[in-house]
Every structure is written in structure tokens, then in C-alpha cells.
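Lab meeting, item 3. Inverse folding demo.
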């Protein structure tokens, strides 16, 4: 068998590279705001629920490009998006809040985080959705020692 460095083979490789470079990159979805993000979420859910399309995507067939532009995006409710803290003259009653106990849902955690960094009781359990939100927001959740 001859080597793979034949001149005609190099010409074919160059031609393929040129053709692939000139080929359109596929559809491009432009995200400009919260409505576009919600449409993307809906699209991904529908793609995942279609077995034929999901199988093709798992095989690497298909391409989608995203371009995210500045726009009006909804707030995730992360603590870093809270309103500025109250003045130093305000009563410190929020610091004395008891730790959250039991099963901590996302809604409970977000309400607690809106006031102060949340503290959890030693035996408190976060739901998976609440745990994902903590990770996404890079929130430091403390557990009380008792």
C-alpha cells in the first residue's frame, strides 16, 4: 500500500478544507432578551422530547450557533441582584433570624436570601432545584452547628 502523502490526496484534502470552510455554519439564534431565552428553553425541551431529533443530536448531526446580545433579561433572584442593604442605623433584627429547618424549597431559600445570607439547620435538606440555584448563584450557605 502506498503512503498517504500522494499529491492527489493532498489536493483532495485541500479541496475538502476549502469546501468545509465555505459551508454555512448552520442556523444562528440571536438572544436579545428574556423572551428569546424562554424561546430557547422551549426549543431545547422540544428537541429533547423528540426521539428522532434527540438521536441525531447524540450522533453529532446538527449544529446551532448562539449569539447573545445585550438586552432586557429577567433577574434570576440571586442575592447579588438584591437591592442595596439598609443603612447602618437600621435595626439588626434580620441577623437574629433562626436557621431554616426541614425541607428547603427554592422559594423558601430565595425568600430567606432576599433578606440576608441564609443559614440552614444542621438537619435541613435542600431540594435539587434549590441546590442548583445555590450553585448557579455561587451563594455561600452556612449550616448552624446545632
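The presenter then showed the designed sequence:
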Amino acid at each position: 500500500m502506498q503512503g498517504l502523502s500522494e499529491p492527489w490526496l493532498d489536493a483532495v484534502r485541500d479541496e475538502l478544507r476549502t469546501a468545509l470552510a465555505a459551508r454555512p455554519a448552520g442556523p444562528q439564534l440571536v438572544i436579545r432578551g428574556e423572551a428569546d431565552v424562554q424561546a430557547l428553553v422551549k426549543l431545547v425541551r422540544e428537541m429533547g422530547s423528540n426521539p428522532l431529533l434527540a438521536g441525531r443530536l447524540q450522533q453529532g448531526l446538527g449544529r446551532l450557533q448562539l449569539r447573545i446580545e445585550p438586552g432586557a433579561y429577567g433577574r434570576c433572584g440571586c442575592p447579588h441582584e438584591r437591592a442595596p442593604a439598609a443603612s447602618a442605623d437600621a435595626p439588626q433584627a434580620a441577623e437574629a433570624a433562626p436557621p431554616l429547618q426541614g425541607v428547603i424549597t427554592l422559594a423558601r431559600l430565595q425568600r430567606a436570601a432576599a433578606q440576608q445570607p441564609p443559614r440552614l439547620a444542621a438537619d435541613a435538606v435542600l431540594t435539587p432545584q434549590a441546590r442548583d440555584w445555590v450553585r448557579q448563584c455561587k451563594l455561600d450557605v452556612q449550616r448552624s452547628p446545632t
